[in-house]
Prior knowledge:
Shape: globular
Oligomer: single chain
Radius of gyration: 31 Å
Number of strands: 53
Structural class: alpha/beta
Amino acid sequence: xxxxxPNRPSLFHxxxxxxxxxxxxxxxVKGIIMAGGEGSRLRPLTCDRPKPLVPVANKPVMEYAxxxxxxxxxxxxxxxxxxxxxxxxxxxxxxxxxxxxxxxxVEDKPLGTAGSVKNAExxxxxxxxxxxxxxLTDFNLAQAMDFHRSQGAVATLVLTTVPNPLEYGxxxxxxxxRIVKFLEKPGWGEVFSxxxxxxxYVLEPEILSLIPERQMFDFSKxxxxxxxxxxxxxxxxxxxxxxxDIGNLQQYVEAHRAVLAGTAKVxxxxxxxxxxxxxxxxVQIDETAVLEGPLLIGDYSRIGPGVRLGxxxxxxxxxQVKEGAxxxxxxxxxxxxxxxxxxxxxxxxxxxxxxxxxxxxxxxAVVGDHSKLERGVVVKPEVKIWPHKRIGAxxxxxxxxxxxxxxxxxxxxxxxxxxPVNKDITPEVAAKLGxxxxxxxxxxxxxxxxxxxxxxxxxxxxxxxxxxxxxGVHGVDCGVLPFSLLRYAVDALGLAGxxxxxxxxxxxxxxxFRFVNEKGLLFSRQQERKLENAFAREDFxxxxxEAMGLTYPITHVAAMYSDYMLDQVDxxxxxxxxxxxxxxxxxxxxxxxxxxxxxxxxxxxxAGFVAGSLAGDxxxxxxxxxxxxxxxxEVVKNQADLGVWLDKEGExxxxxxxxxxxxxxxxxxxxxxxxxxxxxxxxxxxxxxxxPKAVECLAERFGGKVVWTKTNTAQLMETVAGEEFRRGxxxxxxxxxxxxxxxxxxxxxxxxxxxxxxxxSLVSPIPPYHMxxxxxxxxxxxxxxxxxxxxxxxxxxxxxxxxxxxIHREQGWALILPDADEPLYRVYTESVSQEAAQELAAFxxxxxxxxxxxxxxxxxPPVSGS
Length: 866
């Protein structure tokens, strides 16, 4: 495609020289700036401009990219454009104001990162450096070029270390920098390093032949994996320095802080006056104003009497800050008016905004371009005001205009979206979650919704439904149900998905929103991200009144489920066996009404009931919970056939055999595998990497197969729900045995009845195993670096990286897994004895503590709860 070279130069002055030492320039290299970004996560700042034109310290972020390339002698620069391209062309012109030559390549449709560069193929006739037009960095590009040429690479990726790698692409290399593995946007269990892809590449022109013409094609997802597959010389180099991709509003504010603090070695368009003060030309400052650096004031701004400007404040060009106003840690764009007595704290204010007298804008709030806030308005933290809005005098703005409250970055934990009621999870947030869910599916679809019936859940369910209906999606209100029954209802009724609101079993002030797809399976990470993005963008679909969703109450899910599950077993065989059971469950469980009825229809006698929950950290606590001890005692006392404990959401099943032996979680996995193998020769079972290796012995004994998976429940569930996988397991599918407590109980009774066996006779042949679980604190920001160090220490020593890092030793294995919900690591071990497993776990817990304590400012308290 022919380059578009406008003949109108930029009106802005040329590049200011950096205040640190000069860098060595590179020869025979061209540059590419990818500047097609829309910046949806930066809304409302990007409503009227492309992301590369968003100002950082009073000049567009793309301007820093041009300056960086020019600093290393790269003058011929191509710019790839897609969203609002004319805005960028009008601003930068032909590049002469920066002493560079700019050539523009506009995409008619999105082509992906590599596809957009392919669009400039005729321009790229020599080695070229790719940088992002919406990232801020001061990397030494000469070092990257030297490394690239010394290794004879066709592609070199520039890496950096970050505290939280979840939103980036991880890159793993060998000792000489050759890339061996990629992982895009991992979960914590997949964080094998803290070194991430910055999107800065040094490339040779021949790689362009691998990129298809005018097709969506990405560097990280498509091109680099293909180079890896071809065993091409693909390398990565980690550079020191500052880098921020400015992906969201928090990173945007952080970039300003980095510039003012000198962490990012770039120069704002102003003159340094000492004491951390950068002042532009023509600025007027009243002698009674108080300025505390570091801060930046743009050209021709006026600071009135009694004004207080605190540290890490950026004032744009032509801004008026009137008498008595106070601004701290805030970013104010060009042409704003900050009225008398107004107060800004940690806020971002867009171009041409007018704040009349005594206006307050607080932490994390954003006011879009050309909005007007009349006297006495208060904008609460995290509220976003879209451009061109007017807020009347005295208004206290609790919600964003027009789409709800502010966003959280990583919504999902291990079981869904958690939070304390009326703090993080308010009715407003619940309504916004409903609107986000409705906006990612088609209108006129139906979503099932249920709750566990505890005090806060029905309130939040009502709020969620309101948000959902506003998008034109219908709600099927299933009432108070266990989560397992909602999953059944979504699949059986042909719904488009579902949500269940439940209280936390260990913290009564905390609730969880749990989401399932149209198959009744937990959301995958991809589906979670889709909902998170919709929630963060606040760009919800709002339909007219006649198109709004309706609510359909449904009261017979439990009856439907009972009939369905009873049809999956041999009722007559179970009745003939005349089982006697002792049942344990939390008193608040919605199963309390369902289970006795189902058992009665099977002729099963309820010999006793034990109320109670499994409290505490089950993964790390070796003590037998009191409720299970009571359950075992009641089984022996009543000479029952078995005892069962079911959690309140109908997912977990704990067994006790007729002799009072408790079948713990690890043993249950083996027992479940044994049932599947015996009833279906040649069947496969899926096991998380935390499961005992004894399952492989069972597979060998019965001619079965083990498929190892990540510990993530959604992925395990998706694996066992696969049609071929499930069909191979016959009448005893793992999806039921592992994730549906009532269904698993009925299937177990069916298996025992058909075989005429006791539970103990099935459990006793299972190979013994010795496992240990311990945990140790680890700050979030240290998790990636700790994982990388552990991988480096065990390179070539039998390491698996399916989930966390699994290290095989002569007498067992250790799995080191970062927790998704808390700042800690869990260490799982298996060995020849319990003592050996404990020693192995303690060894790696101690090693993690050592690595954490070597980080800057990193200390952890003594291990507890292990």
